[in-house]
Amino acid sequence: xxxxxxxxxxxxxxxxxxxxxxxxxxxxxxxxxxxxxxxxxxxxxxxxxxxxxxxxxxxxxxxxxxxxxxxxxxxxxxxxxxxxxxxxxxxxxxxxxxxxxxxxxxxxxxxxxxxxxxxxxxxxxxxxxxxxxxxxxxxxxxxxxxxxxxxxxxxxxxxxxxxxxxxxxxxxxxxxxxxxxxxxxxxxxxxxxxxxxxxxxxxxxxxxxxxxxxxxxxxxxxxxxxxxxxxxxxxxxxxxxxxxxxxxxxx
Length: 251
What we know:
Elements: E1 27-31, H1 35-47, E2 51-55, H2 58-68, E3 72-75, H3 84-93, E4 100-104, H4 109-117, E5 122-125, H5 130-151, E6 153-156, E7 159-162, E8 167-170, E9 173-175, H6 179-190, E10 196-197, H7 198-206, H8 216-229, E11 237-240, E12 244-247
Helix pairs in contact: 2-3, 6-8
């Protein structure tokens, strides 16, 4: 028989259970003005091995998300000062893609539709079954991990760059790059098929206050071309006269 997650009797004080973080530890933020519900979720998630932060105010929660960048956010329907729907709307409008589970007050299709349209990844109606609640959290975290792993590998034609391992391959051959060569190639591959001005490259790869050789970009592009194009196939880094460079497959 499946048990429904119930609210225990407790005080209204906010409490945070913090454990030493490992690379596997996921950080979950709960935004809810309901102290008993927050405590129940916090105890269960802490038991599951997650690091949990509870915030009882919608506006403070939204501000905290931007600085903490949790792995997953659980938002109740109507925390003080900012509703769950508005939190989702503002997160997505700002370009944030952290997964959000919105807790709805009733088993209402209208509320679930409104939540999904606001940008929530999932909606759970209360009361809910504990096993389903945990399974949905795990599913959302798993999708998040898969998205991050995909984003860590950039590709243009047969050229692949792995941001995590800082490895570059052209076809099956490993290309050895210096740290700055890698940074330049990563920036260009992240803006694949876009014309990048010399100023954009300089500011993004070397920094605004770079005072070195004025031809540094040309020098490093030449280094990259030698390593990437030597017996590896057609040119991928193209010069746009009087503007900058573009990374693309040869026409």
